[in-house]
């Protein structure tokens, strides 16, 4: 059986402009994850598709629902450097300090991938720079581990 969220993900990645409209016509459960553990909102956020983010939430997608590993749409937007989508999700109710199953925050995701603009945006939105994951690492520690020197320096100045 094909999961509607998988069809949406495939259509989105293939660049189909009508992917969202076709998906919504099916009246699927917008909070059901695809076979990779990602909800449609998480997919749209990871791709930086702000108009899809708004439309999915307007049609019933929950802004803070977590996928298989406990990551949310805000984690996905942050990990992919989509600052505008991260801001949009937060304004629409996403918890800027939400944690995954491993205690990872959206700020840690942005730091790990060296997305300085996303780091700055999340901090401006209230992200806790001193929060620690289950290993005891902060966003600054993670930036250091990943060799993201510019992000590390910015976070160190704020810690």
Describe this protein with a few key phrases.
mainly alpha, Serine Threonine Protein Phosphatase 5, Tetratricopeptide repeat
List the helices and strands and how they pair.
Layout: H1 4-13, H2 19-25, H3 40-46, H4 50-58, H5 73-79, H6 83-91, H7 106-112, H8 116-124, H9 139-145, H10 149-158
Q: Unreliable runs, pLDDT <50, ≥5 residues?
A: none
Oligomer: single chain
The shape, in one word, is elongated
The CATH topology name reads Serine Threonine Protein Phosphatase 5, Tetratricopeptide repeat
Number of domains: 1
CATH homologous group name:
Ankyrin repeat-containing domain
Question: Brief description of this entry?
Answer:
The chain has one domain (4-158): Serine Threonine Protein Phosphatase 5, Tetratricopeptide repeat (Alpha Horseshoe), CATH 1.25.40.20.
How would you explain this protein's 3D organization?
- The structure is a single chain.
- This protein has helices at residues 4-13, 19-25, 40-46, 50-58, 73-79, 83-91, 106-112, 116-124, 139-145, 149-158.
- It has 159 residues and is an all-alpha fold.
- The protein has a single domain (4-158), classed as Ankyrin repeat-containing domain (Serine Threonine Protein Phosphatase 5, Tetratricopeptide repeat, Alpha Horseshoe).
- α5 runs antiparallel to α6.
- The mean pLDDT is 91.
